[in-house]
Amino acid sequence: TWTKGSAFDFDSYEIYYAIEPIGESNYQIFDRNNNAFLASPDCERIEVTGLNNSYNYYFKIRARDKNQNYSSLSNEVSASLAPVTVSSLSAFGLDSTVRLYWQISAQQNNQGFKIYRKVENGEYVLVDSWLTNPALSNPSAYSFEWWDNNVMNRTRYTYKISSTNVYNVEFFYNIPAIAEPRAIHTITISNSSGTLTDQISFSANPFATDGFDNYWDVTKSTPTSNYVWNAFWEQYWGTNGTHLSREIKGDYDLDNELKTWVMRTRSDQINQTLTISVSDNFDRAEKLYLYDGGNGTYHNLLSGPYQYLNSNSSIRTMTLFWGNMQPKVLITSMANKIYQGGTTINFSWNYQYPFLVDHLELSIINDSGSILLSPSILNNQFSFTWTVPNDVTEMQDCCFVVDAVAIDGVRTRFWSDYHFSLVPQMILSYNEPGLKMRSNPWLNSGLSFNQVFGESQAYELSPEGLWIPTEDYDFGKAYCVFSDEVSFYSGTFPIQSNEYSLNLVPGWNFIPNPHLCAYNLEDLSFLMRGELFNFSEVLAQNLISRAVYVYRNGIYEPVTRIEPWEAFFIRYDGTEDLQPIIRFYPFFNGPSISPSEPGFKLKVVMNEGAPNSIELGLHKNATDDYDFKYDLLKPFPLPYLETNSLWINLPNADSTDSW
Question: What is the pTM of this model?
Fold first, then answer.
């Protein structure tokens, strides 16, 4: 190596080399004709080839330009060549032993090799040498193998090797090899008398992979006659798959993870009982199960051998599970719903590895509480029927939860992918005095407004956009209601529990919330010509505005959440031919529709009014014209409300196009 030079018309570096100190004519030159990299002035290192291992060499360097001008020669350095060229060094951690293997492309005047080892983060220590082990000195060999039997499983060892020339100068190969021995387990198959046997072995190692690894993974041939035979099987290794007598996979956490091996068995011992057993070098807490694809049986190999009747000489496929094998509960999907007291719910599920289940615990859980349905369900039960108590405490956004307690005591919790609410059979409608926007969740109740709200005035919106007085408080309609007194009304009428949809028309739509659950705006969804869209999607297409208004607690302004019992105004800006429909599906989770925060925002509020506030702001993505995503139109006027309004007019527009 050297420090690079510079020249306007640089041509090449010239490296002088000789087997004695460089004089005026005893050298050879290595330049761009030998290696093109020397034609670059930025070159700072090069490998000089064609040297003889028998000699020490001396070197100087200078730069040359295209006009045959030269720099001064550098200082002189010398080096001895290693007597051997090592092309690779590998270490394989097996069971209580390490195999060290290296290959060489050439050796000359090499007296032999020394092997150094360090344990974990310790220091290197000489563990073997050509001086005491003749196997490490073979001038005609091109590969060497050395076994380290003084090792412990699950301990990391690092090895490096050196060669020694005839001048007793030691040269180290600068790429170490690392290994970690691991226990290797065997699976034995035998006939009933034990006169015929076969074995395969498996393990996991931090330096192996789940793919094919040379030396760790060993292929196996198929049997011939009078045999019992087993092998691991990798379908996608090679053209037609590969059978293996040993398969070592990449390391993993046996306490928390699980890996599988596909095993094949075969025998010409027809109608005999064959036995599969495993070696006894497992930790006591480990799990090893064998699944027999021939009869669908799982067997714990660590509890004893597995036996089966061999009815033919065809291949029989099995799967070996090693690690933290835990049962899984697959809860059957259902639609999101609202369940009223007295309703019956049928929860169902399936198992993966039911033989590992000791019992199940069933619950209903939400963010604020839980109901224990059953503390102990056996692993042969696949459903549970529960009737919602009439006086159940209201619970919103619940999940059905199964806690699977395994035979080893490990507890795993599984949640339903559906959500639901529980409400009592008798439902209370409570209303404060004043103006309200209301919906009725009761089906076919035949109620009047005076029954529910007391002395009151109620209005519904006609298709022509006119407020019409009404006395009937029906499901599926939106109302504005004014009452002077606080009102209470309780009823046991059935409620709307399933998904519900309503048609939309261009412009403002007065819509009731059909369910006794709240909806964040992003959780509303829409159908256009029968195709379902999230709110964020129709907003992006300028079809549905996020200007959704509710008159609540004396304030008429945009909201981000629709509460139970509420009606609201929402605006559709598309055409009728899209057949627009708003869909209410309880506890549906849609992506956010809120724009990013503006760089500046000012809110102006008037003491009384409907609406009584405006917001002004600046946003990096907004324009000075109407922006569907950022600007909110003035809401539809309400009945029975004579008060001031506050809005901003669009430029060159009348008051109907205000925002």
Answer: 0.73
Residue 398's contacts (CB-CB under 8 Å, 6 or more residues apart) are 364, 365, 366, 419, 420, 421, 422
CATH architecture, range 84-179:
Sandwich (2.60)
Nearest CA to 545 out of 612, 470, 630, 461 is that of 630
Instruction: Tell me which CATH homologous superfamily contains domain 328-417.
Output: Immunoglobulins (2.60.40.10)
The one-character DSSP state at 39 is G
Q: 483-521: buried (b, 16+ CB within 10 Å) or exposed (e) per residue?
A: beeebeeebebebbbebbebebeeebbbbbbbbbbbbbb
| Rounded Cα gap, residues 336 and 495, in angstroms | 15
Strand-pair category, 98-107 with 143-148: antiparallel
H/E/C letters for each residue in 386-448?
EECCCCCCCEEEEEEEEEEEECCCCEEEEECCCCEEEECCCEEEEECCEEEEECCCECCCCEE
pLDDT tens-digit map of 606-622: 676 667 677 778 888 88
Which of 3.40.50.620, 3.10.50.40, 2.60.40.10, 3.40.50.720 would CATH assign to domain 10-80? 2.60.40.10
What pLDDT, in 10s, does the model give residues 524-570? 999 999 999 999 999 999 999 998 999 998 888 899 999 999 999 99
Judged against a pLDDT cut of 70, whether residue 642 lies above it is answered with: no
In the chain, residues under CATH classification 2.60.40.10 are 10-80, 84-179, 328-417
